[in-house]
Design brief:
Length: 194
């Protein structure tokens, strides 16, 4: 570069800086810098990550929760009433057992159940979709993991009604209950006893 070109660039840089500080007084430039710094710090700190039920349980770096056969667990989408606290408690049970859970509040749980394809006679307070299977009611996470390990030809699992002592329905007076495997024909067989 020639000396004339260097002085031209230095002159233009200086005039640009003067023009900029003339338009934006120093206090505004400083304020902008502080806002940018705060935004960067906020996003790097993890505060900007999604919170709540849609967030998966944290595992070691890059590890996904699995069924025990090396397969990753499916995302569980739960269709429930907005007022139902036991449904949220069941979702928390799944999260503690490695599942990623997404809650959907619906105005009509039986209609959601019907739309998904779970026979109404196995109904409970919520219906969930996990991969290609449906999960009705307070099914233990261990039974869902077993389902994905064995992969039977079925609609899915159900714990009809809301038995005290099932996950999300913890009670001082639990009752024995069964997890049912709902076949493609809509007929049930006992999958697990609790």
């Amino acid at each position: 570069m020639k000396t004339n070109e260097v002085s031209f660039y230095k002159t233009n840089e200086a005039s640009f800086a003067r023009a900029l500080t003339g338009i934006y007084p120093r206090k505004y430039i400083l304020l902008q810098g502080m806002v940018l710094f705060a935004a960067l710090a906020f996003s790097l700190s993890g505060w900007a990550q999604p919170q709540g039920m849609a967030q998966s349980a944290t595992k070691g770096a890059g590890q996904a929760a699995s069924t025990g056969s090396g397969q990753a667990l499916p995302v569980v989408e739960v269709y429930k009433s907005a007022q139902c606290g036991c449904c949220k408690a069941w979702a928390e049970h799944l999260q503690k057992n490695g599942f990623t859970v997404i809650l959907h509040d619906v105005g009509d749980v039986p209609a959601a159940r019907k739309k998904l394809g779970m026979p109404s006679q196995y109904g409970s307070c919520h219906t969930a979709k996990a991969g290609q299977y449906l999960v009705e009611g307070h099914v233990p996470a261990a039974d869902i993991k077993r389902l994905f390990k064995e992969r039977p030809k079925a609609i899915g699992l159900a714990v009809p009604s809301m038995p005290p002592g099932s996950p999300g329905m913890e009670s001082d007076h639990p009752v024995p209950y069964e997890t049912l495997l709902i076949g493609k024909d809509g007929k049930a067989s006992v999958y697990a006893q609790h």
